[in-house]
Amino acid sequence: MNGGGSRSRAPEAASAALPAATAERPPATAGPSPAAAADNDAREPAAGGPRGEGAGAPAGRPGAGTAARPGPAGPEDGTGARAAAPADTTGHREAGTGSRPAPAGPEPAGAPAGASGPEAGASGSPTGGERLRFVGAATRRIARGIDLDEIVLGLCRATVPTFADAILVYLRDPLPVGDERPVGPVVLRLRRTDQLPEHVRGLGEGDGADLAAERPEPVPDLAGCAAERCEVRIGGPLAEVLRGVRPVFGDSSAARAALPELLGDERPVPDRHRTILAPLRGRRRVIGAAVFVRRPDRAAFENDDLLVAAQLATHTALGVDKAVLYGREVYIADELQRTMLPDSLPQPTGVRLASRYLPAAETARVGGDWYDAIPLPGNRVALVVGDVMGHSMTSAAIMGQLRTTAQTLAGLDLPPAEVLHHLDEQAQRLGSDRMATCMYAVYDPVAHRIVIANAGHPPPILLHRGGRAEVLRVPPGAPIGVGGVDFEAVELDAPAGATLLLYTDGLVESRIRDVWTGIEQLRERLIETARLTGPNPPPLEPLCDEVLGMLGPGDRDDDIALLAARFEGIAPSDVAYWFLDPRPQTARQARRLARRALTRWGLEELTDSVELLVSEVITNAVRYAERPITLRLLRTDVLRCEVGDDVPQLPRLRQARPSDEGGRGLYLVNRLARRWGATRLSTGKVVWFELALPAHAR
């Protein structure tokens, strides 16, 4: 791709020779070789020699005047120096794609002191080979950038002061992505400017007196006072220059009208070929423009400098295109990962939760690790941590499907082993190579017990209140996706004040340590952290940070998901539980039991509301239930009532007509309760409602 500006003319051979000549040269390094430095020194004029427009400037004085240049004619000489091309040889060719980012380090200066452009030759005019060396070094610096700012900064630092004294880079706002066709007018916004500092301009060698005598008169600020935003008028002079793609001199007829539109009417522009306006064309469209400016006390640009500007503009535009596409991919990956993981964890009564997620690398922010906390009936909560093989977009998509399946199965209140069994079947339906590990646990704050089932996942660690940390003995099981494997669940004590840590293998396994060594290091880390807080359990959020602090430089080989649960439980004195037979007298019995519990808790103010709502829910259960009905009251930060029966059909709220004899029970519950709901269980359903506690009981 030539950027839309190449022409089939005889001078095009000069532009076409640039990539070819670059390919024949050995690869350039990040800095000048000693031989090149010596060659540059040999071309410098002797100190104390005649200075002026036809003589070189003192060493270290960028931008000084150069020797007189030959006219735009003449063939290439035997040394490889090329005569300046005619004014119409501004064809825009794409540079060779073989250039690679150089190792970190300073770029070659590209020009000895006194050069008007990239590396002036003995005659004061840069040769073709010297221009190629400058373009190679500049494009390597531009290609080194990954994001948009790095690429634009690379262009500025590569051209100032070697090629120009100031540069202004304008980019479209917003930048189009891929095949998108922006709607609305084209707007260019000033992305970056760069120029020599005022105290550096015009400095040369010699003592202080010589410096003061040779310093030129102050020059205007080349990069300042430019317009921050420019709307390109359709059919205007700036639109015509951008459509032409080729760089043009600032004093050309096309640029005289385009530059004031871009920079502003009050922006001074140096005359005599000291400004180049270069459109930045990406793969499909012009995405901006770059303005190269030289000071009035420095020699003007030559026609061959238009070719240099075209090469720089092409590499910059293609780099910006890639950076925009890369940024969009990163954004999509971040959004995908964010939507796959919970935005925030629930805070059910009796347990406190905290979590962390770390991607394997900044350039691959998606992975197959996930965590979840799902509230269940009876104030229980399901804790899930899983890990799909790999950390790619495919792994993230499979993780999302498995997480959704786990949430659905948890909503059915299936036992943990059954949940893993159905997840295994789902993974097999997704494909033969869809493998994952998973830990599924259900915590009951009333019973102070936890049921855990494992599918090939690292075992959890329980940190007790006194500071003792133990690795729980949970049957490992086979990973999800193997098929035909039974999963076994264990029920363990979950004492109040203990902390359960569920994690993925990225936390404990890396290239420098095996998984069991990492688990032991994690256990010791928890003990050390708990020792700092004494008998009280450590705060949950700082505890997660301390756990991640055990990771070293070589321990980030995989994604990391961490879920910490602090068991607080619900005291037995705050729970009232009864079994009731489904008889006509059950509603009256339930009202009496609820009234006694409220009196014991000092909540007599809620008696009327609770009796009415309990009566309505119990009456509906008695009508259809065949087995004993459960009634449970829990006093936490709210008063919660749960009624369970063996009928799986969930009640629905409907608007009863005046002639209907029933259908108003749930309407009353909906109006009087703070919250209410119904959850289907494997053995039936639970209908629950909550009431706010009085102010004195909170």
Strand order of the largest sheet: 3-2-1-6-5-4
Shape: elongated
* Rg, nearest Å: 38 Å
Q: Helical element count?
A: 15
Keyphrases for this structure?
20% strand, six-stranded antiparallel beta sheet, disordered N terminus, alpha+beta
Structural commentary:
This protein is an alpha+beta fold and 698 residues long. It has 15 helices and 21 strands. It has helices at residues 12-24, 34-43, 128-143, 148-159, 208-214, 237-244, 253-263, 303-340, 393-411, 416-430, 515-533, 540-548, 586-601, 607-624, 665-672, and strands at residues 166-172, 186-195, 229-232, 248-249, 275-281, 286-293, 351-358, 369-375, 381-388, 436-444, 449-455, 461-463, 469-471, 489-493, 499-503, 560-567, 575-580, 629-635, 638-645, 675-681, 684-692. The protein has a 6-stranded antiparallel sheet with strand order 3-2-1-6-5-4, with helices on both faces. Helix 8 (303-340) packs parallel to helix 9.
Layout: helices, strands, pairs:
Blueprint lengths: L11 H13 L9 H10 L84 H16 L4 H12 L6 E7 L13 E10 L12 H7 L14 E4 L4 H8 L3 E2 L3 H11 L11 E7 L4 E8 L9 H38 L10 E8 L10 E7 L5 E8 L4 H19 L4 H15 L5 E9 L4 E7 L5 E3 L5 E3 L17 E5 L5 E5 L11 H19 L6 H9 L11 E8 L7 E6 L5 H16 L5 H18 L4 E7 L2 E8 L19 H8 L2 E7 L2 E9 L6
Helix pairs in contact: 1-3, 3-4, 3-8, 4-8, 6-7, 8-9, 9-10, 13-14, 14-15
What's a quick, concise take on this entry?
Helix 8 (303-340) runs parallel beside helix 9. This protein is 31% helix and 20% strand.
